[in-house]
Amino acid sequence: MNDDRRPREVRSVLATVMYTPDEIEQLRQAFAPAEFLHIQPWDAAGIAAALEDVDVAILLGDIDRRHLEAPRLRWVHCDHSGLTRSAVPELFARDLVVTGSAGRSAPALAQHGFYFALALTFDARRLFRQQDAHRWQGFLGSEERLALYGKTLGIVGYGHTAKEMARLGKAFGMKVIVYRRSAAEHAADVDIMLSADRGDGLERLLDEADVVMIAAQLTDATHHMFSAAEFARMKESAFVINMARGPIIDQDALIEALHAGQIAGAGLDVTDPEPLPPESPLWDAPNVVITPHSTPRLPDRTQRTIDLIVENLRRYRAGEPMLNALTERDVYTPRL
């Protein structure tokens, strides 16, 4: 990303987000006196014409060749969290800032991670089957299961969702270990902070964690970050939970680890590919809970996004560093 911190003027804005009229008006007022064009995302001709002149775009989806070639475009906001599809090498060869809406759903995503942790801890699938069969009974080994309290939570990544996971982990009475990319000081909800930039690896987290939650960005560095060696190192009683992106896990290695009993279970809101094909062996792997990349919304999710865009607009005009901006460390090339 070009690190130009000069104040910048906003003359013309394109928005393709599908907000309510009142929400669009909030954006229009925030960007005033700039021209504000709200065009439906399927209006390819209207978008192409607008991209000849606008210097800011607020997109429903990701950037593509049209945005990379737009002559005046300087800032694009993509209205979702994961910017993997936008993190292309060409982006950093030109003066284009790309930001996203990471954080708008963080509390819900963290709760989703603990939905998996609790479902696996209680063996909810088995209990639901017994309820459907109208059977009031325990099952072999149920009395030996341990609650989350006192266990160790390992979190990979330390963005918005991971911070909420750490907070919930402490609320459940867990020890929290975090592995993150950049070096940073300890946080109140983290017992052990590991950092790739300080030379730390995943080993300590894998050795100690009873529940591993993945909340990292998908980049060249995190592609298949969890493969056969990582599953072999985890406790046989441990669960892995992926709330990030499917390719962070080597799915074939995960299936083998589950069948071999190397780990006790997996909770997956993301898979590779998506949608997961009906014939995928992952559906029938032991102790897997799968949701279709779908998390209940926060009631103010869109307002949280608007607030983020407005704050980034202030930073853009002032020449300050912007929130959720892509950097060259975020590039993801395996699927180009």
Give a structural overview.
Helices cover about 30% and strands about 15% of the residues. By secondary structure, it is α/β, with parallel strands linked by helices. The strands form two sheets. Strands 8-7-6-9-10-11-12 form a seven-stranded parallel sheet. Strands 2-1-3-4-5 form a five-stranded parallel sheet, covered by helices on one side. Helix 9 links the parallel strand 10 and strand 11. The longest helix is centred in the C-terminal third of the chain and has 18 residues. It is elongated, with a radius of gyration of 22 Å. The two termini are about 20 Å apart. About 40% of the residues are buried. The mean pLDDT is about 95.
Key features of this structure:
alpha/beta, 10 helices, seven-stranded parallel β-sheet, 30% helix, five-stranded parallel β-sheet, 336 residues
Please write the string of helix (H) and strand (E) elements. EHEHEHEEHHEHEEHEHEHEEH
- Helical segment count: 10
What proportion of the residues is helical, as a percent range? 25-40%
Classify the secondary structure makeup into a structural class: alpha/beta
Radius of gyration using CA atoms only: 22 Å
Number of strands: 12
Shape: elongated
Q: What characterizes the major β-sheet?
A: 7 strands, parallel
Low-confidence stretches: none
Q: What is the end-to-end distance? A: 19 Å
> Which band does the percent of strand residues land in?
5-15%
Which strands sit side by side, in order, in the main sheet? Answer: 8-7-6-9-10-11-12
Mean pLDDT: 95
